[in-house]
Write a structure and sequence with these properties.
The structure holds three protein chains of three kinds. By secondary structure, chain A is mainly alpha-helical. Helix content of chain A is about 70%, strand content about 0%. Chain C is built from twelve helices and 16 strands. Classes of the chains: A mainly alpha, B mainly alpha, C alpha+beta.
Chain lengths: ~120, ~650, ~525
């Protein structure tokens, strides 16, 4: 099935890079395979003890972060997005991080630790 | 081939599907409308009704504080009667305001005023009506979403009001709804779903979803639908502020949604997100697993609620930033610094939230951090207020009713802001926390502050909405008594607060031995102020409804203003503008040297005479300055912000 | 004017409206899940109970991760197909995506079911039994209390309703707690005049109406009386400000005036008071049952039987239960124990594990526990020599040693019997029980946040599938008309879908592996 021709509606005339379907999909499949591979690795790594909980979690979350970046960069096209969107996301990430770390920071109290509650 | 060309094609294709929009039926036009102007009016009217409801709840509370143990007099008992006979018999079986009733009204007064009154009116109504016009857009970017946003908000309002009629009554744990009180106060009721506390949460989930949809819509509209030539630094400050508020809502509301869902889970499924181990209620151990954290709720709540403070007050500043230049006939002083201050304020507002929580026993490190950021945030606030104040300097000021309210906003908001400074410090806050000092502080910001500005906005844009002006006589009758009554209400609260009157005493402190009797008499004076404030709104209500029919006919640009919303027919038709808008200049070009009149609207190209003056005077207005910057490579650049034609006259 | 940039991009931003919109929406979604992850971290760091880890089966989560990744590939391929104007490929890819979402939700449902049918009893000393209630019959469903010989029902017409009747049972032969046959009503005797009536909603509504009529009349009278008293109250209050720690001078003329007003009001209102009093008396006389706040009803005929979950009650004891709506039943509590089969014992919250209540119920297992503890501890200390002195403080040791799945201390078949054979069940005294719950949000903040986060994620999956399904079903017309518009829609829907995938990529390690 083919859509109506270009002359009736100028739909994709601004698309400077006509898409090579086979090539693009091959890339996506490769990324998908990498993601599944690393999911397996996360599971495998979780069975190994790296000495401390902190180390285990850091390694586990690093792999997850790597996977998330793949999804973001390739599937969500963040590797070539418009500047405006990076600006939104930058602030969003800053505020989300502030929320996470400042709330947890509330557990830290050097005065209590030194002189007791 | 370029994108503009393409867009014409695509939009033309789009046209055919939209023909039916031009002849909407009654329901489509008045109720399920997708037109941003109608939605704005819907938000405005709903918001005003909620403001009235919140105000009436407060009158009942004020009676109880001034005259504890005395039944409501006939002049006030009608407020209870509108809730029905059963309600009165249940909650005021001897005509007196019971503690539970006071708690219920207190919680609902706060909730309704913040989430159903001021934000829907100040943000949703004004942004919907004004911003698309001001950026030269035919409508919001997503009109259907806009309609959904309003109706989700409406449902949330209905749920909130309906909760009064449940056997448990409405929520009674304060507008902040802190756990564990919120989770235990109505635990002993047959259904955990049909309780005021649970319905409060449901209503909030709807309200938050509505806000998120609205915020996405506003941001997309400002980003993508600005008229040709309307660069960011030509955007009126009003739209800048609304854009920023939408960002605050977009990013700050989700954590409250999380908190609401968690508390809902605590109420309905017996989980313990916010309930600690060993929690007792009414002397018995509550049958829960425990292990949760009450403080987590406060973190999530205030992560929203502090930015929400700015959502409450920025519309006020935004409206004044339009009205003041228009009535001083000179540019807004320091437009650029105001924009940067606004963005800084918005950024900082996300990292000050825990100054509401100094008393929770959170760590001293984090308390110090928040103390620091809180003091820091006063800088941009002061910049904003100072710019508004300096905008008055040297102007030939005219005082129509909107300008009265706008000028009153400045000192009133100033009092509110300055009295907040001491509260930023942990050691002072320990003493003043939860006293009337706090009540006075934030009410000065929101009531004589924001709400005055909202009145200003209503008087200012009313001619554009209805095509008629509001009555000036009634406006004066509204303004002067309101100004006096507001101060009678809130100024004495500072004194009471410093005498440590607690904010949640339903009897004004009567049963507490340690209360300072010296300041009891203020309770009555404040309440008299409240009755007066109520009466002062009557001229406004008459004015608001009657002027639709009897007001003086207004022209398209009755205030001789410069921004794009005044370039539409009055009232604006569906699709707003008759032709595509092109913007040639900055938003506040009043009294431009060389121009033939004292205002140069954004849609008018610079005249040859203006260009002449610009070349010779070297003190051009903001956007002309920009052009100069581009041509002369920065020679006049730094002055452009400060020296305006209005100033140079002095 | 029409809204521009619905399909094509605005030149200076390079974006069409929907794309700006979806990224803004995703930003708020980041904050939503950011708030949830922050809560997770906060709850975990602040937990005063052993935070469960490795308690979820990894395999279903692993499969679900793969399912979502696959769907992410297909949804982006669907968009690419549209860009290349290959509608057939678009349909296939979209179909797979939606099929994946179904698979995901089915697996999720399977996992949830397993949790909801798994129970815990936490005993007073902190011992935890995991397992499930023994017997499938209704009377032994977990923490339900059997309450028999009920001869008296006390209602509070201002608050309670008749929902307690849902918990009524009848004994029929072998079944002591059978369902109440349709139409078999409860007959009670009214305290005022001894009339016998049937307990129906209709009757109760009438009674409640009478109740409120009396209350309204009383309210009017009380309000009037309080208004008469008001000047006196004010005079007293005024006088009181002259006493206490911070006295202020009292204006005695004002006090006098108030007192005079009081005397005058008393005289003036006497008539009205009389009238209202008569009205109250008349209403009370017509409905003597609602004069008091509660109404005691005597059951006529056979005493009643109730089977009611603890969560529906405010309080209970051997002779009475109080429902959450203040309805009180007086009778006799029977069977106050919880029959339970176990699959694990958790001693981490017990001060002295060797004295745990677990050994009261399973004395035969104590020996195996001691052996298990010694073996595991030896292995642990060998592996972590640095913890040799303080291993009891270490959460890993506690997790390995004090949390004891039965199959670790006995052969698998025997463990199976403990869980499924009634002969191995125990009857836990209600007095020993502190908390009883299935593995639902109420079990602990860990399960609460697990269900909340995965549940919200699941709702996103369902919502996304509906939107993508809509694009699939209605896409053809738009494709023929303006394929770029459809491609844009699929791109926007796809962005949401990838975000949902992205959240899951974090959820999987956080809940299943850590």
């Amino acid at each position: 099935m083919e859509p109506s021709s270009d002359k009736s509606h100028g739909h994709d005339s601004h698309d400077d890079h006509p898409i090579d379907l086979a090539k693009t999909v091959r890339t996506y499949l490769k990324v998908g395979a990498t993601l599944i591979l690393f999911t397996g690795i996360t599971w495998g790594v979780a069975l190994i003890d790296f000495g401390s909980h902190a180390a285990n979690y850091t390694i586990g979350l690093s792999i997850a972060t790597f996977k998330v970046s793949l999804v973001g960069l390739i599937f969500m096209h963040l590797n070539h997005e418009k500047p405006l969107i990076y600006k939104f996301l930058l602030f969003t990430v800053i505020f989300a991080a502030a929320m996470m770390f400042l709330t947890v920071l509330a557990f830290l109290d050097p005065i209590k630790a030194r002189f007791g509650a | 081939m370029d994108a503009t060309h393409d867009s014409k094609h695509a939009d033309h294709a789009h046209d055919h599907g939209h023909d039916d929009h031009h002849h909407p039926g009654f329901i489509q036009k008045w109720i399920f409308s997708t037109d941003h102007k109608m939605i704005g009016v819907q938000y405005g009217v709903t918001g005003l009704l909620f403001l009235a409801l919140g105000f009436m709840l407060m009158l009942v509370m004020r009676w109880s504080i001034a005259h504890p143990g005395v039944p409501l007099p006939g002049e006030l008992s009608w407020i209870l009667k509108i809730f029905g006979d059963d309600f009165v018999s249940r909650w005021a079986p001897d005509g007196k305001v019971s503690g539970s009733l006071y708690n219920m009204f207190g919680a609902m007064h706060g909730t309704i005023m913040v989430f159903f009154g001021v934000v829907p009116l100040g943000f949703a109504a004004f942004v919907n009506f004004v911003t698309p016009l001001q950026v030269g857009a035919p409508d919001m970017a997503f009109p259907k979403l806009n309609m959904w946003s309003f109706w989700l908000f409406f449902i949330s309002g209905v749920l909130m009001v309906a909760s009064f009629f449940l056997p448990t009554g409405a929520a009674q744990a304060g507008w902040t709804n802190y756990s564990p009180l919120a989770a235990t106060i109505q635990r002993n009721s047959d259904s955990h779903f049909w309780t005021g506390q649970t319905q409060w949460l449901f209503a909030m989930v709807f309200n938050i979803s509505a806000s998120l949809l609205g915020a996405v819509n506003v941001l997309t509209t400002v980003i993508n639908l600005r008229a040709k030539g309307l660069t960011w630094m030509r955007l009126p400050f009003f739209s800048w502020a609304m854009f920023t508020i939408a960002f605050l809502l977009l990013l700050a509301f989700p954590p409250l949604e999380v908190a609401a869902l968690m508390q809902l889970c605590d109420q309905m499924f017996g989980s313990s997100f916010f309930l600690p181990t060993g929690l007792h209620s009414g002397g018995t151990l509550v049958d829960i697993s425990g292990g949760g954290h009450p403080v987590l709720f406060q973190h999530l709540f205030w992560f929203l609620a502090h930015p929400e403070v700015y959502v409450l007050l920025l519309p006020g500043i935004a409206i004044c930033a339009e009205i003041i230049p228009c009535n001083t006939r000179k540019p807004l002083w320091g437009y650029k610094s105001m924009v940067y201050a606004l963005l800084t304020l918005a950024f900082l507002s996300f990292i000050v939230w825990a100054h509401h929580m100094y008393l929770t026993g959170m760590g001293s490190v984090v308390a110090t951090f928040f103390q620091f950021t809180t003091v820091l945030i006063s800088v941009p606030s002061v910049i904003l207020l100072t710019c508004l104040m300096l905008s008055l300097w040297g102007g030939s000021i005219r005082f129509p009713v909107p300008m009265l309210f706008a000028t009153a906003f400045i000192p009133m908001f100033g009092i509110g802001g300055l009295t907040g400074l001491p509260l930023a410090f942990t050691f002072i806050d320990l003493y003043l926390h939860d006293t009337y000092y706090i009540i006075a502080h934030f009410h000065y910001i929101v009531a004589p502050g924001t709400i005055f500005a909202l009145f200003a906005g209503i008087y200012h844009w009313y001619p554009k909405v209805t095509g008629r002006k509001m009555s000036t006589v009634l406006g004066h009758l509204h303004f002067w008594p309101s100004l006096i009554a507001m101060n009678v209400v809130f100024a004495p609260m500072f004194i009471q607060g410093m005498a440590s009157f607690h904010r949640r005493w339903y009897d004004g402190g009567k049963v507490f031995e340690m209360t300072s009797h010296k300041y009891f008499y203020l309770n009555e004076i404040i309440s008299w102020g409240a009755w007066g404030l109520g009466l002062a709104q009557i001229p406004f209500i008459i004015n608001f409804f009657a002027s639709v029919f009897t007001g003086k006919k207004a022209s398209d640009n009755p205030w001789d203003a410069t921004t794009l919303e005044w370039n539409t027919p009055t009232p604006p038709p569906h699709g707003n503008f008759l032709t595509e808008q092109i913007v040639y200049r900055g938003p506040y070009e009043y009294s431009v040297p060389g121009a033939d009149k004292d205002f140069s609207p954004q849609w008018e190209a610079p005249t040859p005479a203006e260009k002449e003056t610009e070349d010779h005077a070297g003190h051009p207005s903001a956007t002309i300055a920009e052009r100069v910057v581009h041509s002369v490579e920065g020679e006049a650049s730094h002055d452009g912000d400060v020296y305006r034609p209005g100033m140079s006259n002095n | 004017m029409e809204i521009p940039y619905t399909v094509s991009a605005r030149p200076d931003t390079g974006l069409y409206n929907a794309k700006v919109g979806i990224w803004l929406f995703l930003a708020s979604e980041v904050m939503l899940f950011g708030g949830l992850f922050s809560s997770y971290v906060f709850l975990r760091i602040g937990a005063d109970f052993p935070w469960p880890f490795h308690e979820l089966k990894v395999l279903p989560g692993f499969i679900n991760t793969m399912v979502l990744i696959a769907s992410s590939v297909t949804v982006v391929a669907a968009w690419a197909s549209l860009k290349a104007r290959r509608y057939g490929w678009y349909q296939i890819n979209m179909l797979i995506t939606i099929a994946c979402s179904f698979a995901f939700m089915c697996i999720k449902g399977y996992e949830y079911y397993g949790k909801f049918t798994h129970y815990s009893v936490i005993l007073e000393d902190g011992t935890v039994f995991d397992g499930h209630p023994a017997h499938a019959s209704e009377e032994h469903q977990g923490d339900k209390i059997a309450f028999t010989e009920v001869k008296e029902i006390t209602l509070a017409p201002g608050k309670s309703n008749l929902h307690f009747l849902r918990h009524r049972r009848v004994s029929e032969g072998a079944k002591p707690f059978g369902k109440v046959p349709e139409g078999q009503l409860v007959k009670v005797r009214l305290p005022s005049n001894g009339t016998e009536i049937e307990l129906t909603e209709e009757w109760y509504k009438g009674l409640q109406k009478q109740y409120w009529d009396v209350r309204h009349a009383r309210r009017d009278l009380n309000t009037l009386l309080a208004r008469i008293e008001a000047p006196k109250t004010r005079a007293d209050d005024l006088r009181k400000t002259g006493e206490g720690e911070t006295p202020v001078p009292v204006d005695f003329r004002k006090v006098e005036a108030f007192l005079n007003e009081y005397e005058k009001l008393k005289v003036d209102s006497a008539e009205k008071v009389k009238e209202l009093t008569a009205k109250v008396k008349a209403l009370e006389g017509a409905a003597p049952d609602v004069v008091g706040d509660t109404l005691k009803l005597q059951v006529v005929g056979n005493p009643l039987v109730f089977l009611v979950g603890e969560k529906d009650l405010q309080t209970y004891n051997a002779t009475g239960v109080t429902f959450r709506d203040d309805t009180v039943l007086t009778g006799k509590m029977t069977g106050d124990s919880i029959p339970f089969n176990i699959d694990a014992i958790d001693l981490r919250q017990v001060k002295k594990p060797e004295n745990s209540l677990a050994w009261k119920y399973f004395p035969q297992l104590k020996e195996a526990y001691v052996k298990h503890r010694e073996e595991k501890t030896a292995a642990y200390v060998q592996k972590h020599p640095s913890h040799a002195g303080n291993y009891t403080e270490v959460s890993d040791w506690q997790h390995e040693v004090l949390r004891i799945p039965l199959e670790e201390i006995m052969p698998e078949e025997q463990a199976h019997e403990y869980l499924h054979d009634e002969a191995h069940s125990v009857h836990i005294d209600r007095a020993d029980k502190r908390f009883y719950s299935n593995f639902s949000p109420s079990r602990s903040p860990y399960y609460a946040i697990y269900f909340l986060m995965t549940g919200l994620h699941g709702l996103h999956v369902i919502g996304g599938a509906i939107v993508l399904g809509y694009f699939l079903v209605t896409g053809r017309k738009m494709y023929l008309n303006n394929p770029e518009h459809l491609a844009n829609r699929v791109e926007v829907g796809g962005l949401f879908w990838h975000f949902v995938d992205l959240v899951w990529i974090f959820l999987f390690p956080v809940f299943y592996l850590m």
